[in-house]
Structure formats: structure tokens, C-alpha cells
Amino acid sequence: MAVHPATDTIAAIATAPGTGGIGIIRISGPEALPLLHKLFVPRKPRSHFTSHTLYYGTVANRDGQILDEALAVYMQAPHTYTREDVVELHCHGSALVLQAILRTIFEWGGRPAEQGEFTKRAFLAGRIDLTRAEAVLDLLQAQTEVGVRLAANQLQGQLFERLETIRRQLIAILALLEVAIDFPDDDVEIFNTSVMAIQLKTEVIAPLERLIALAEQGKIIREGVTVVIAGRPNVGKSSLLNALLREERALVTPLPGTTRDTIEERIAIHGIPVHLIDTAGIRMHEDPVEALGIERARQKLDEADLVLFLVDAFAGMEDRDRELYHSIQEKNHLVVVNKQDLVTDGQLDALAKEFSRTEIVKISAKEEQGIEELQEAIYRVIVAEKGEISEEMICAPNTRHRAVLAQTLEACRKFEQAMVAGAPVDLLAVEVQSALDYLGDITGLTTPDDVLGAVFSQFCIGK
Ligand SMILES: Nc1nc2c(ncn2[C@@H]2O[C@H](COP(=O)(O)OP(=O)(O)OP(=O)(O)O)[C@@H](O)[C@H]2O)c(=O)[nH]1
Ligand SMILES: [Mg+2]
Q: 55: which DSSP letter?
């Protein structure tokens, strides 16, 4: 990719919004060092800043008014995140102070960084490929530890390596085809269709299919699953939500109809982000507010990847339970019998007979019994549905990659068909070239600007 060094200097607050212990302002571009001289007064006066060294001093505005104490570091290109000159000011965390410093930088000629612009510059300078740039984004957004590992691996380029291997194979095939185009009358057979077909299948099509399957599985690590707790009023849904969260998040009372709206929280089960939803107990009701809550509960049931159908062991199965159970039976579900602390084993067994065909999990949300077993059961159902979490998934492609991989695969299949049909070599070469173009979209080697814009606009400012 052609590299045009940026002529302007960008700046932004690089730390998360809000008041923290420290706040970091990052400046990148040709004016970074001159800006440092204008803004920052080191405690020991000096005319020169050594690269990658931390200096203590004060930051002042254009009138010389001191805004904050800070640590400053100048990092000389190209050994920086953006490969440009970079300056970082580590200030106190106050948002007001950081804003004031930033304003001063803009007055001195810097300009506000756009979302993801630092990472975009790193990409444009050729320091990282697009899969790595996206990994930075994933790292920032990762919801669980496994998600962090997935992004970190992508950052190290594991996905990039796998794509490169496929790309090199396609280039080798294209090279052969081009020789055949250049020497049409040669007696020697330059390429053998059946050999090439096998090579295409094993070295290109199969790995592409594998990556697409991985992207499907990786989705659960990136996006997680939705688990909805459902049941009639008072069975202990909110108590279960609290037990799974290990905090008193939802109101719990002995009165039926306590939860009137859905409550959504996130937990992680073996690295899978679980979007947990407590719902209003479903029953016929005149109260318009509760009726709305029940309507919403039904909507959430439709979106659920898994429904936890909760039954009260003490009250036993009533017609209302059976009705609700009937309506969710087609969905992925687990029967959870709550309040086991209030009944004997004999009563539990009798209740279990109602669900002779499904596994049931017995818990006491109030006494926090059986919660771990329930988590294991949830994990088993998710994995049965979505596939095991494997080490390989750690370099799973994201949704954008998946779409492009599918296009690449389609182009390869077209090439395969054309080859089998005995199409002329120049036509074959066109198909291979289009597969290569698609693949380039993923790593950014030939990515059009609009794709780049879409990728980098998801970043926060300062990254
Ligand atoms: N003994 C016992 N009581 C429980 C258990 N789980 C919940 N309860 C009690 O059952 C009552 C209802 O609990 P909630 O968690 O509010 O029930 P809910 O299903 O969310 O009720 P709605 O929001 O009204 O639909 C409360 O008094 C809880 O303390 C349990 O495992 N054992
Ligand atoms: Mg409730």
C-alpha cells in the first residue's frame, strides 16, 4: 500500500472517559515534538527531549498559565504506535483539565483525532494489517477473558498468517495460469488440471471453509448468547438472576408480579459472554403496566438462544406453568426446579416425572444451591448448539472477515467449475484474480477506502 506520511498532527484523550487516576493525551504527527516544547515545561530546564524517556514537569496554556503537573514522553518515529512522532502527556485524570490541555494543543495547531485515527495511521504506515487493526478494536470491546485472548492472538497475526498461506497458494496458481497464457503453443503441459484441482481443494477451498466455520463459532465468543429466565410469577426468577450475578441486582419480594420490566445483565460462563434476562412473571393480568412487562417478556423469549424455564418446587406444576412450558417447548430450554430447600426428595421426584423427557436442574436460588451445576448445564446446552470452544477458535475471523471469506470461496468455486468445464486459461486467471482481490479486502492489502472507513469508525477517539 502506498504510504503518504500525514502532514497534520492529531491529538486526543487516550484514556477512558470519566475521572480516573491519570488521563493520557496522545499526540501524533510531525508537529508532536514542537508541540511538546510549547506546552510542557520540564522541572529541570532543557532544550532537548530524548526519545522514549519520561520527563516530569508542568503543562501550561498559551498564556503561560499552568494547567496541570504531568509526565511527558516523546517517542521518535518510527518506533511508535503510528510510526510517526508521538508525544504522550500523563496528566491528572480530571476531564476538565484534560479538555483544557487539548484545547491548548488545538490552539497551537494540532487537530482533534477522528475515531480510530491513531490505529488507522498505524495501518496506513504499514505497521499493522487490517486484521490486527480490528484486533485492537476487539481488545477494547472484549467482554470476557477468552474474547481478550482471541483479540490478542489476532493482534499477533495468527489469522493473518493463515490468510497469507491461502493467498500464496492462489498466487502460485495464478502464476501458472499466466505462464500458460504467455506460452499458448508450448508443447509441454504447463499445468495439469487434475493436479491443480486437488491443490485448489486441499490448499485453498478446505482452509477457507474451515475459517468460515471458525467465524461462526467465534461469534459466540465475540457476541455471546442470550439466556432468558422465564416462569410464572413468584417462582424465583429474580432470585435466580441475583444468584447467577452474585449480587442483589433485582428486587425480590414474596408478592407475585414484583418484576414488571425485563432486567438485563451480563455474566461469563467458561469464557462465553452470557446476556442474562430476567422477565416479568407471565400470567393474565388487568394491570396495564404489568401487561406491558409480560408482553416484553414474550418478545425476549423469542430472541432467546436458551430459555431457563423456572418451576416452584413447593407450589408444584400448575396449569399456568404447563401452558407456558408448552409455548417454549420448541425452543432450546432447560427446566430448572427452584426452591428445593422447601421440599423433600420424594416431592422433587414426583415433580421430575412431569418432565420425563428432559433434563431438569434442581436449585435453590435463595440458598444458592445448585447454581454451579446450573451454569455447567447452561454451558453444555450452548456448546451442544454452537460447538465446543477450541484453541483454534482463538484466531476466529470476525463477521466482516466471514463475509469476505465467503466471497473468496465463491470465486474459488467458480474457478474450480470453469476449470472442470475446460474454460480457456485467460478466463480462469480472471476468476483466480477475483478470489485474490477478495482476500486482499480482509488484510487490507487491497482494501477500498469505504471498507477502511467502516472499520476505523468503530474505534473510540484516542485509539
Ligand atoms: N425458600 C425459597 N424461597 C425462594 C427461593 N427462590 C425465591 N424464593 C422466594 O420466592 C419469592 C419470589 O421470588 P422472586 O425472585 O421475586 O420471584 P420472581 O419469579 O422474580 O417473581 P415475579 O417477579 O413476581 O415474577 C421471594 O419471597 C423469594 O425470597 C428458594 O430457592 N427458596
Ligand atoms: Mg421477579
A: E
Question: What pLDDT, on the 0 to 100 scale, is given for residue 190?
Answer: 64
Give the number of the ligand closest to the Cα of residue 235: 1
Shared-domain flag, residues 421 and 334: no
Cell reading at 278:
430476567
Q: What sign for the dihedral angle of Cα 404, 409, 410, 416?
A: positive
Listed as ranges, residues in the chain with pLDDT below 50 are 1-3
C-alpha cell at 77: 518515529
Q: Which structural domain range is residue 364 located in?
A: 224-386
Taking a C-beta distance cutoff of 8 angstroms, is the pair 17, 110 a contact? no
Asked if residue 369 and residue 233 are part of one domain, the reply reads yes
Per-residue pLDDT, 340: 96
Task: Name the phi and psi angles at 28, rounded to 5.
Answer: -140, 135
Query: How many alpha carbons lie under 13 Å from residue 30 in its C-beta half-sphere?
Result: 5
What CATH number should be reported for the domain holding residue 207? 1.20.120.430
Assessment of whether the complete model's pTM goes beyond 0.85:
no
CB 58 within 8 A of CB 70: yes
Q: What's the angle, vertex CA 392, arms to CA 386 and CA 395, rounded to 5? A: 95
302: Cβ–Cβ under 8 A, 6 or more apart, which residues? Answer: none
Could you tell me if residue 270 is left (phi over 0), alpha (psi between -120 and 50 degrees) or otherwise beta?
left
Same domain (yes/no): 53, 157: no
Quote the CA–CA distance of 26 and 461 in Å, as a whole number.
10
Query: Can you tell me which residue has the cell 486484521?
Result: 131
Residue list, ligand 1 pocket, CB within 6 Å:
231, 233-239, 252-254, 256-259, 280-281, 338-339, 341-342, 364-367
pLDDT in tens, 176-217: 888 777 777 655 566 678 888 899 999 999 999 998 888 877
Q: Give the residue, out of 248, 252, 294, 342, with the most ligand 1 atoms within 8 A of its beta carbon, to mutate for a pocket test.
A: 252
Distance CA 263, CA 276 (A): 8
> Is residue 220 within 8 Å of residue 291, measured between CB atoms?
no
Q: What's the CA-to-centroid distance between 256 and ligand 1, angstroms?
A: 9
